[in-house]
Amino acid sequence: MNWNEYRKNFPDRYWKESFFDKLLLDFLSRENIKEVLDFGGGKYGTEILNNPVFSVYFQDPFVTKPDWQKSPEPNQKFDAIVARGCINYLTLEEISSLKNRLKPNGYLIFNSFEKEPQAYEKTFIDGKGEICLEKAYCKDGVVHHIIEKHEERISHTFFYYTPDQYHKALGSFKLERYGKNSIVIIVQNT
Fold it and tell me: Euclidean distance between the first and final Cα of the chain, in Å?
């Protein structure tokens, strides 16, 4: 899977500005956050962070760094780490280790699913203007996501974790629901 081609191959609902972005910007502004690690932000980064108020660093091993973001130092700590649309690609151990990259009282902010995603099939128009079929199903805590168009098939998997699993891995957090099955989780490093 070529993650640099994400916007050409996947529905725009995965990367267009959403409730998560508005909540994120409000929260970061209210908490006077300055240094942010955009973790797994994709080729274009978490675009709502492209704001002169923030010093934004980028970590995503699967894509090239956006020009407007900086590369972090190996042991650098951050006021906040944002993981928009990517946390489910990590193991719970990897998610827990993100807290080690936070400054004292820093925040880990990410979005995920509240309940196990339901199986579905639907069509959409991709970034190239082609009609595609999108399918997904969850089995044993692993979500299988497939895009089909013409002779091409793109598939990948990611994890589904319950809020209780996040709690065991991260400790206490604030949870906010949005959409049909989406949540924002904010963890403070105390």
Answer: 37
Global pTM? 0.94
Q: 24: helix, coil or strand? A: helix
Find all residues with CB under 8 Å of 125, minimum gap 6, and list them: 131, 132
Q: What is the pLDDT of residues 6-40, one digit of tens each?
A: 888 888 888 888 999 999 999 999 999 999 999 99
| Beta-bridge mates of residue 137 | 144
What the block records as the tokens of 166 is 């996040």
Residue 9, H or E segment: helix 6-9
Question: CB neighbours (10 Å) of residue 15?
Answer: 19
Long-range contacts of 16-22 (CB under 8 A, 24+ apart): 17/47, 17/48, 19/178, 19/179, 19/182, 20/84, 20/111, 20/178, 20/182, 20/184, 21/46, 21/47, 21/48, 21/84, 22/48
Quickly count: other Cβ atoms within 10 Å of residue 76's Cβ: 14
